[in-house]
Every structure is written in structure tokens, then in C-alpha cells.
From TrEMBL:
<keyword id="KW-0433">Leucine-rich repeat</keyword>
<dbReference type="GO" id="GO:0005737">
    <property type="term" value="C:cytoplasm"/>
</dbReference>
<protein>
    <recommendedName>
        <fullName>Leucine-rich repeat-containing protein 14B</fullName>
    </recommendedName>
</protein>
<dbReference type="InterPro" id="IPR050694">
    <property type="entry name" value="LRRC14/PRAME"/>
</dbReference>
<dbReference type="InterPro" id="IPR032675">
    <property type="entry name" value="LRR_dom_sf"/>
</dbReference>
<comment type="similarity">
    <text>Belongs to the PRAME family. LRRC14 subfamily.</text>
</comment>
<keyword id="KW-0677">Repeat</keyword>
Length: 520
């Protein structure tokens, strides 16, 4: 249902609707009304008014999360609207704030915080063109360089040189915007808009380029670091990074697939692993760690036991964990603090059921999100699973795609879901009985869509009916076959697709050449 608007907010909407009048009248608007007008303009996508509001911003800070979040005048949170029209107007307004000749009042703006913007799947803005994190990184870098060029060619008025605005942003860098961002970071000290990187995501970069740019971001301020997919980072690279760079404020660390492979470790590699564990322990704020798709068999203790702060978020999906790893997790200091846990890709019922349920028991009072995709959970495990999940009264999200469960077993689970008071989101598998007889699990991508759609739709309706009967229609239940939505991947999939095709082609050429050599 639509959020209520105060009389003040309705007046602000009426004011900004007449774009020309609003732009002419800004000079006589009380300073404390700027935040109200900003949110109203954002809601109505009045780009020109947003630009002028920011260009004439009279306050010390401009915090997008606070301005667009729930306010007394309008409870609706607009921070998930990454509307291109609004965000481009906001950033160009910021550039023009610096260039604008001094007005009668002092320029007071010191901090612009863009980190509160959230990227989501469904955009409700009218323009339907989101500006994702990568595009925001690109535009801000471009505007900073434009500013410098402009300032070199123009005699600026008195006071312009003193302007210095810290711009807090979550940067997202790939090969395609790398050079531009590097230039913007290198010239930061000369630019009135100072880029301050709070979170950094790197994809599709060589380790050398990643090492170079991460130093430029000022790692001492970094709170979140995501190195993903096409950055070929290995254990030795990680050791070099941690030895040469300190991350004192880092809260969240995501490492790319195959960073660790402990299958054939030498004595020297064991020392590297221990050194990485020690370096992680120096990050005293670190509470979120993702090491998905690495091979960590038997080494989880070595990496995590040095940590002095308990982890709240742990993703060790598809990491080939053995019983010793699970036993360590269940008995470690982390187990009582885990709010988000991903153990996908492990055969939990056959390998370590009791230890897993012990871990679940320890984290049950705080656990918000549990992901158990492709864990070989079958019909005969459902009662045990319900028993394990019953104490998890704070659970908001449960994802268990890719498990061989029948429609009946799913109905049994959904009746139980009605009893979890905080549950909001469930991702459930296509029932086993919708696939042809003889389908083996885990199902490969080529057979994933080979199921009876009508039968699935009927079962999905029944499952939603169970939630409805239990007065839980607010719970979102879905089956995203190829995994959950990822805004960053979605935004850069063209570039990453091209990169993957290129590496596939290179691999194919190498293979063909070796075949030719063999036949000579």
C-alpha cells in the first residue's frame, strides 16, 4: 500500500511539478527545505530541479541514503530507485556546484554520501533506466576529470579554489572503465571533488591492475572489498596483497572462485595459508567472509581460527568441506554469531548431518539467512530439517534450490514455513517429480529447464496456497533456476560475456593447436 504523505510533502511535490517556476524560485527557498524538495523531485523524476537543488546545496552534507530513505514527511524508501535521470542530474549538479560563481552565501557542502543507493532487480521509476554501481563509478570519474580540465582552462573566481567536497562512493571497476577510474584517483588531490572509496568491487581485471588500483583507492578507509569472477587471484597473490596493503577498517571480504586449492599443497603453501590466516586476524572489524568455489578441505580451522572477531556472514559454498571443517565451524566462536550462512554444494545429509545440526543449533538465535542449494536434501531428510530449523525464529530467508525433493515433501516444508514468524523469502527447487524419471542430481545446466512446466505451475500454486492459508501471503516464494538476481553481474554481463567468449576461444585454439602438433 502507498505510504502517507504529509501536507509539507504534498506542497513540495506541487512546487517541483512546475519545473520552470521551481528553478526560478530556489534562491528564496529556506535552506532546511532543500532535503524535502530533493526527495519530492526524486519521486517525480524532475531531473532539472534535482540538478539545481544540488548545484545550490546550502547544507554541510548531502547523504543520498538519508535523503531518500524513510522520512517523517514521506515514509516510502526511495533509495532503491537507481533512476538514471535523477542520479545523472544529481552528479552533474555536483560538478556545477563547484563551477558556479560564488553566491551571497558561503559554500558549505563538505560531504556527499552516495553509498546509501541500493541496486535492485525491479525499477519502479518511470524512465525504467537504472544507473547501476558500475555506471555511477564511470560517471563520477568522468565528471572529476572534466572538472580538472575545465579548471585548467578557466580563471576561477575567489573562493572556488577552497572548495573541497568528499564524495563517498562504492566503486565498481572492470577492464572497460579501469583507465578512467585510475586517472580520476591519480588526480584526486587536485580535484575539488575528492573520491573516497568505501566499498570496492573488481571484476574482469588482471591481478596486476587490481593491485595497482586498490592502492590508489586508499585501502585504509575501505570497509568492503569484493574481488569476483574474472580476477584470477590465487593464494600467493592474496599473500602479496595482504603483506603490502593494510585494511584496518575492512568489514566484508569476498574472494573469487578458486583463490584456494588445498588439494596439492607443498610445505611452503601451508605456510602461505597460515600467513593469510594471521593477516585476516589483523582485520579486527572483519565480520563477513565469502570464499565460495575454493577447495578448502580440512583447512577451514587454519584460516578462521586466528580471527579475533566472530564472523556474522560466512559463504563457504562449493568449498569441498570435510567432517573436520564442519566440526570446527560447529564448535568455533563464530557459530553463535552467524546471521548469514551459505553451505551450498555439500552433501550435508550423508557427510555430517549431526555436526551441521549442531552448527544450526548454535546460530539459531541470530540466523537470518540460510542457503543450502544442491545439498542432496531428499524427502527422507525433511523431518530432520524441520527439527533443525524450528529454533531459527529469526530466519528471514531460506534458499534450497537444486535439492531432489518431491512436491509432497515441499508441501510439508511450506506448512512448517508458516510457523517461522520472520520469514520473507524462500527459493525452492523444481519438484523432483516434474523432471523425467532417471534425472540425476545435481542437474547440469543443459537439463535444468527440461521439466514439466504445467505440473510445476500447479505445485507452485499449491505451495503459495499453503502460505495464504497460514496468513503468510507476505512470504515471497520463487524458483530462480539460474540463481538469484545479482545487480552487478546484470549490469556488466555484456563485458563479462565477451571476456568469457574470448577465453573460451583461446582455450579452443590452444586445444586445436596441441591436436595438430600431436598429429604431426
Amino acid at each position: 500500500e502507498a505510504a502517507m504523505k504529509s501536507l509539507r510533502f504534498l506542497c513540495a511535490e506541487a512546487f517541483v511539478l512546475n519545473t520552470e517556476f521551481a528553478r526560478r524560485s530556489l534562491g528564496s527557498v529556506a535552506h532546511n527545505l532543500f532535503p524535502l524538495l530533493f526527495k519530492a523531485s526524486y519521486l517525480l523524476e524532475r531531473g532539472e530541479v534535482i540538478h539545481d537543488l544540488v548545484e545550490n546545496w546550502p547544507l554541510v552534507d548531502l547523504n543520498m541514503g538519508k535523503l531518500l530513505g524513510k522520512t517523517a514527511d514521506y515514509q516510502e524508501d526511495l533509495s532503491h530507485r537507481t533512476c538514471s535521470v535523477c542520479l545523472e542530474s544529481c552528479l552533474t549538479g555536483l560538478r556545477d556546484y563547484v563551477l558556479q560563481p560564488p553566491s551571497p552565501y558561503m559554500k558549505r557542502l563538505k560531504v556527499v554520501d552516495l553509498t546509501g543507493i541500493k541496486d535492485v532487480e525491479v525499477q519502479v521509476c518511470e524512465c525504467k533506466r537504472p544507473m547501476g554501481r558500475w555506471a555511477r563509478t564511470q560517471l563520477l570519474s568522468k565528471l572529476c576529470l572534466e572538472l580538472l580540465l575545465h579548471m585548467q582552462g578557466v580563471q576561477l573566481g575567489p573562493g572556488a579554489a577552497e572548495i573541497s567536497v568528499d564524495v563517498l562512493i562504492d566503486l565498481f571497476v572492470t577492464e572497460r572503465n579501469y583507465e578512467l577510474v585510475v586517472q580520476a584517483l591519480l588526480t584526486r588531490c587536485s580535484c575539488p571533488l575528492k573520491i573516497h572509496c568505501v566499498a570496492f568491487r573488481a571484476d574482469n581485471l588482471t591481478p596486476q591492475k587490481f593491485f595497482y588500483i586498490i592502492k590508489l583507492t586508499d585501502p585504509s578507509l575501505l570497509r568492503k572489498l569484493e574481488v569476483v569472477h574474472n580476477v584470477r587471484l590465487e593464494m600467493q597473490h592474496l599473500q602479496i596483497l595482504f603483506n603490502s596493503t593494510r585494511f584496518p577498517l575492512l568489514v566484508s571480504l569476498t574472494l573469487p572462485a578458486r583463490t584456494f586449492n588445498v588439494r596439492r599443497l607443498t610445505a611452503a603453501d601451508e605456510l602461505v595459508l597460515s600467513a593469510i590466516g594471521e593477516k585476516l586476524s589483523e582485520m579486527t572489524h572483519l565480520t563477513e567472509l565469502s570464499m565460495a568455489f575454493s577447495i578448502l578441505t580440512g583447512r577451514v580451522r587454519k584460516l578462521l581460527s586466528p580471527l579475533k572477531t566472530p564472523l556474522k556472514v560466512l559463504d563457504v559454498s562449493n568449498c569441498s568441506l570435510n567432517h573436520a571443517d564442519m566440526a570446527y565451524l560447529a564448535n568455533s566462536l563464530h557459530s553463535n554469531h552467524l546471521e548469514v550462512l551459505d553451505l551450498s554444494g555439500h552433501n550435508i545429509p550423508d557427510l555430517y548431518p549431526a555436526t551441521f545440526f549442531k552448527l544450526l543449533g548454535h546460530s539459531s538465535s541470530v540466523l537470518r539467512s540460510l542457503i543450502l542449494e544442491e545439498c542432496n536434501i531428499q524427502d527422507n531428510h525433511v523431518n530432520m530439517l524441520i527439527l533443525g530449523l524450528s529454533p531459527c525464529q529469526k530466519l528471514q530467508e531460506f534458499k534450497f534450490l537444486g535439492n531432489p525433493l518431491s512436491a509432497e515433501a515441499l508441501k510439508h516444508l511450506f506448512r512448517f514455513f508458516c510457523e517461522l514468524p520472520m520469514l520473507k523469502n524462500v527459493e525452492f527447487p523444481v519438484p523432483r517429480d516434474c523432471y523425467p524419471i532417471g534425472t540425476t542430481y545435481p542437474i547440469d545446466d543443459s537439463n535444468l529447464c527440461n521439466f514439466d512446466r504445467q505440473k510445476y505451475d500447479r505445485v507452485a500454486e499449491e505451495l503459495k496456497g499453503i502460505l495464504l492459508q497460514g496468513n503468510r501471503e507476505g512470504v515471497k516464494a520463487s524458483t530462480p533456476l539460474f540463481g538469484s538476481y545479482d545487480a552487478a553481474v546484470e549490469e556488466t554481463n555484456n563485458e563479462l560475456g565477451t571476456y568469457l567468449m574470448k577465453s573460451f576461444k583461446e582455450t579452443l585454439e590452444k586445444f586445436t593447436n596441441s591436436l595438430k602438433e600431436m598429429s604431426l
